[in-house]
From TrEMBL:
Protein name, UniProt field: Phosphoribosylglycinamide formyltransferase
Source organism superkingdom: Bacteria
Positions of the catalytic residues: 108 (proton donor)
Keywords: Purine biosynthesis, Transferase
Residues reported to bind (6R)-10-formyltetrahydrofolate: 64, 89-92, 106
EC main group: transferase
Species in which this protein is naturally found: Oceanobacillus zhaokaii
Pfam family, one: Formyl_trans_N
HAMAP family: PurN
NCBIfam families assigned to the protein according to its UniProt record, in alphabetical order: PurN
Function field: Catalyzes the transfer of a formyl group from 10-formyltetrahydrofolate to 5-phospho-ribosyl-glycinamide (GAR), producing 5-phospho-ribosyl-N-formylglycinamide (FGAR) and tetrahydrofolate.
Positions marked as site (Raises pKa of active site His): 144
This protein's pathway: Purine metabolism; IMP biosynthesis via de novo pathway; N(2)-formyl-N(1)-(5-phospho-D-ribosyl)glycinamide from N(1)-(5-phospho-D-ribosyl)glycinamide (10-formyl THF route): step 1/1
């Protein structure tokens, strides 16, 4: 039986994208990278792994609806059924949400509902918490507000620099995301 097809949406360096595509025994095939930043590092990773990319500039479209319709047509061409956001720095709109109900998942570097939005690691570090972590959740129209699928905590020690904390969180992300993807696909 051929594997389900999925796309990753990313805007940045792409370490989570890389962890997903290099994961052993991933239950789906990543057939497309969607990226909104021309020079994002993640594009190079896709090229290296011969994964198709669709790179767009939101400013060239009249509206969020217009660029999301274009994205949907790219996803349909590749027969994508799941979408995994990995550092995609845009709020997903109703056009995409309605086209893929219950099939869009995100990873966020905090224990939601704590520290939603940008710079979650810095927010947690500056707040002086002794525990933060990683959340994988479904997407809704809010910012990091959709139903939580899985969380893993990361201890913050007083000797930790912000950089060290970021590294610990990324290590957790790179294990957690592929494993949650597999759990999701096995139960659906
Ligand atoms: C990750 O920390 C992810 O949780 C957040 O954005 C970051 C992306 O990093 N949503 P990378 O591009 O995968 O390295």
């Amino acid at each position: 039986m051929s594997k389900l097809k999925a796309a990753v949406f990313a805007s940045g360096a792409g370490s989570n994208f890389q962890a997903i595509i290099e994961a052993r025994d991933l239950a789906c095939e990543i057939v497309l990278l969607i990226c909104d930043k021309q020079n994002a590092g993640v594009i190079e990773i896709a090229k290296k792994h011969q994964i198709s990319t669709f790179v767009f500039n939101a400013k060239e479209f009249a509206s969020k609806q217009a660029y999301e319709e274009k994205i949907i047509s790219e996803l349909r061409k590749k027969e994508v059924s799941w979408i995994f956001l990995a550092g995609y720095m845009r709020i997903v709109g109703s056009t995409l949400l309605q086209a893929f109900p219950g099939k869009i998942v995100n990873i966020h570097p905090s224990l939601l509902p704590n520290f939603p939005g940008k710079d979650a690691i810095a927010q947690a570090y500056q707040a002086g918490v002794n525990k933060t972590g990683v959340t994988v959740h479904y997407i809704d129209e809010g910012i990091d507000t959709g139903p939580i699928i899985a969380q893993e905590s990361v201890a913050v020690f007083s000797k930790d620099t912000e950089e060290a904390l970021k590294k610990k969180i990324q290590e957790v992300e790179h294990q957690l995301y592929p494993s949650v993807i597999n759990q999701l696909l096995q139960t659906k």
